[in-house]
Amino acid sequence: MKQILIIGGGFFGMYLAEHFAQRGCAVRLVEKEPQFMTRASYANQARVHNGYHYPRSVLTALRSRISFPRFVSEFRECVDSDFEKYYLIGNPLGKVSAKQFLKFCERIGAQCELAPNRIKALTNPALIEACFSVVEYAFDAVKLRDVMIERLASSTVVSSLNTSVESVRQQGEGLLAEIRNEVSEETETICADHVFNCTYSRINYVNAHSGINFVPLKHEMTEMCLVEVPDQLKQLGITVMCGPFFSVMPFPPAGLHTFSHVRYTPHYEWRDGDGIEYEDAHAKFASAQRNSAWRYMQKDAARYIPVLSECSYQSSLWEVKTILPRSETDDSRPILFLPNHGLKGFHCIMGGKIDNVYDAVEAITTQNLLE
Ligand SMILES: Cc1cc2nc3c(=O)[nH]c(=O)nc-3n(C[C@H](O)[C@H](O)[C@H](O)COP(=O)(O)OP(=O)(O)OC[C@H]3O[C@@H](n4cnc5c(N)ncnc54)[C@H](O)[C@@H]3O)c2cc1C
Fold it and tell me: Does the CB atom of residue 67 touch ligand 1 within 6 A?
């Protein structure tokens, strides 16, 4: 029986752990934090992508079109579809015109209709060229965590919280991982045939401590504001495309809306790569100064939708957002999949969005990694 170690109990690590257990492997899942899915898998905009967000990357849009119904059906009880979703085309700074957006939706086969006048009436016509009604949902990360915890409990996966993998090295045909308990600080080693590094912003932490090449990644310290929206917006999600604009989306676990802004959500950025001194994303996150940019976000967004000036700020979700350098130009969200990265049996996996998990499973299966 293959021994599999999964590093990272975010949505990707949990989903893959169950997947390998179902394939008859002995799976150990370790998560550094005291609870599963408390990092990027919780602190994100909760959008179940259905393609609309990616007019500059048709491949990402088409993959989302395939994953969307699958995710919605697999995690039905975690999906909030009880709101209206609108994509607005910003002008004059937009990178996509209304005509181009419509054509793009047609190309990817995504439903898109002119929004009703009551939605148009919310906007400043000098800055919004068009409003479209689309089909896009939000997921509840807390319900998703509960579902995944339940699924793992009824599987053969052995999981440990407060446990971090420090390094991995080759031992014979297999791998030996050094594991540290974050509370007692005790260390132990465990053997595995395959190790999956699913640590998102921290992929290079294990690599750095194992003498393995860095994966080039870009990190952003991000802030999404949690706000109470005025009554007219309570049952709506709004995204203004495609440029230095913003999104207001229901955030089901808090009963509030997240407010993100292309210009103000990222506070600063840094990179991992060969020749760059490695910085641990979690350590950087823990010591980061958190001065909210809410006032800037709100002031700018209210120019497009004046009623947004009535939002009441509650708090902010901070998290490190990690993207592949190649995504910077076209805003695509492919998965990172590096099988046998530096060591035989050591695989790095990262998804730029939650539903990418299906692409990850497909990539692993196609490679016949466990044969
Ligand atoms: C601001 C923001 C907005 C986003 N918006 C969306 C959105 O609207 N829709 C969408 O689909 N996606 C969105 N994403 C992307 C999405 O959040 C990620 O693609 C997804 O959560 C990645 O899941 P993961 O399991 O790889 O990462 P994580 O949830 O971060 O899990 C990685 C886990 O690894 C653990 N870990 C790290 N190092 C170690 C170690 N050495 N040993 C053990 N454990 C370790 C961490 O504690 C963490 O729990 C957004 C991301 C951000 C940051």
Answer: no
Q: Are 244 and 93 in contact (CB under 8 A)?
A: yes
Q: pTM of the full predicted structure? A: 0.97
Q: Which domain holds residue 98?
A: 50-139+217-323
Q: Looking at the domain assignment, is residue 328 inside a domain?
A: no
- The dihedral region occupied by 333, where left means phi > 0, alpha psi between -120 and 50, and beta the remainder, is beta
Q: Are residues 198 and 254 located together in one domain of the fold? A: no
| pLDDT tens figures, 69-126 | 999 999 999 999 999 999 999 988 888 999 999 999 999 999 999 999 999 999 999 9
In terms of domains, do 185 and 154 share one? yes
What are the pLDDT digits (tens) for 180-216? 999 999 999 999 999 999 999 999 999 999 999 999 9
Pocket mutation for ligand 1, best pick of 29, 41, 72, 80 (most atoms within 8 Å of C-beta): 41
Q: How much distance in Å is there from the Cα of 139 to the middle of ligand 1?
A: 14
Secondary-structure breakdown of the chain: helix, strand, coil percentages, each rounded to the nearest 5: 30, 35, 35
Q: Looking at the 3D structure of the chain, how many domains does it have?
A: 2
237 and 120: one domain? Answer: yes
